[in-house]
Design goal:
By secondary structure, the protein is α/β, with parallel strands linked by helices. It is about 40% helix and about 15% strand. The protein has a single domain (about 5-220), classed as Rossmann fold (3-Layer(aba) Sandwich). The chain is globular and about 45 Å long. Mean pLDDT is about 90; it is low at about 205-210 and about 220-223.
Amino acid sequence: MAKILIQFAHPALERSRANRALVEAVLDVEGVTFNDLYEAYPDFDVDVAREQALLLEHDIVVLQHPFYWYSTPALMKQWEDLVLEHGWAYGSRGTALHGKKLLSVITAGGGEGAYKPGGYNRFTMAQLLTPFEQTAHLCGMEYLPPFVVHGTHALSPEELDNHAKDYRRVIEALRDDLLDLDKAKQFPRLNSNLAEVLPSAIGGNLCTAATYFSRLSSTWQRQ
């Protein structure tokens, strides 16, 4: 069973429908470590040793965040700049992450049709995520097709729930090495056609995550 580290970054989770739903879906999955960067480092003082140890302890790294200005929220970029050090993550002696997998889990307000040549954002999501793919390559990691939830502002509760269930199915399949990566790489995003890449039996009950969000709610009220 692979160990999965979800590196989560959202500066305003209390106002997020999509990311809250995705988080709730995977918090109780066995073999998953959930690392909320904005909760851990509200002052952006990233503990490099702790973060590198977490990366070493896991086989698959998930970067989950909203798609801010075609990139990540600021703290995740800070995390990348500090934690993925030369001589550790890349370079001739930087082999710590070799052989691990990297998955981007993205929420975007724009619909999928906006991400294409001639569309509102002019480029495909895969093209805009090229820096993440190249980062994985430089670090000796395998970059997986992204899991993308488009059009978040217009999603109905049922649609959002379906995306959350799909996310859980993907995480469980990655953990159990049941995801057909060869087929998955034929699609622009991992959740384009899950019926083709996942066993139908994958998928459990969603976690309410009451304890986690109750704790976060108390933090928000103090800020």
